[in-house]
Amino acid sequence: MILNTIHRKVNEFIPWTNVYGIARSLIAINTLSTLLFNHSEVLFIRNTPQELMGLSHRLIYRYNFFNLFPSTEIARFAAIFFLILVIIGWMPRITAILHFYITLSFLIMCVFIDGGDQVATVLTLLLVPIAAGDKRHWHFGKSLPMNQSHNFYMKCVAWFAYIAIRLQVAIIYLHAGTGKFVSNEWVNGTAVWYWFNDPMFGANYYVNLVLTPMLKSPVIIFFITWGSMVLEILLFLALTMKTSYRKQILLAGILFHLSIFVIQGLFSFFFSMTAALLLYLYPINEQIRFRLPSLKQKEVDDRETTIFRRRSAVDI
């Protein structure tokens, strides 16, 4: 019975929509933004072979993307070019592997990284099995009809990769939410005050002008601090929520990371986490529409959606 259910869900699973395409583009923007606005001398430090301890370190250094070129500055421009190809959605089956290679190389070589770069590396790796089955020339295009969309084994690989992505993102928020309980500052509700006033990750001067009056209120600080923790735990619990609830909490999660971007200036981190939330909470089988369809087209789309839901009922 269980095997039959899994077989049916996998067979009707079609992840090759613009949902995963948009996520790929957002992840690429994360790395591109750092490479675009920083010189290679700031980002990378070259090590001599004598400074590399162990065979694994030497291999990682030798075959790193940013060491394949005469200079890291040339490599930076090459990475920018390939990441632009990812962003515009060209040939995801080909660019997915290259995207992971560049992201991993950047994570290893860059001196200044944050959690967004780590998330981007994991997501690009897990997206490779999904992209491997993408027959489209552009990842923003419409998905193929069910009867034309790949064999069962390719869908099976993509389905398990998608499950792994959702579990990984859920664990990120579980760790972020529960991990704060070991900190006295988070438990007593004052952590946000310290973060907003941190000299490196705190709010900039203009944002502080707005925040300072609120930061003087212990009640507001307490609710912002605990609100962050509660939201992160809710984002973890969204793993088992219905699709309608997941879409609502998706918006809350994006606004949460947008506020971090505005207040703390974590620009690239915002794109990685938005991509992670999109893959985690938005039904990957559905196509995201950016314009209002005509009445006739809406009727056709509603009819197709009804038929698909009756046949699929996939609520992973």
UniProtKB/TrEMBL annotation:
Transmembrane regions: 74-92, 98-131, 152-176, 219-237, 249-282
Subcellular location: Endomembrane system
Source species, domain of life: Bacteria
SMART domains (alphabetical): HTTM
GO cellular component: endomembrane system
Record's keyword terms, sorted: Membrane, Transmembrane, Transmembrane helix
HTTM-like domain ranges (all copies): 12-285
Membrane topology annotation: Multi-pass membrane protein
Database matches in InterPro entries: HTTM-like, Sporulation_SdpB, Sporulation_signal_mat
Location, primary (coarse class): membrane
Name this polypeptide is given: HTTM domain protein
Organism listed in the record: Sphingobacterium sp. (strain 21)
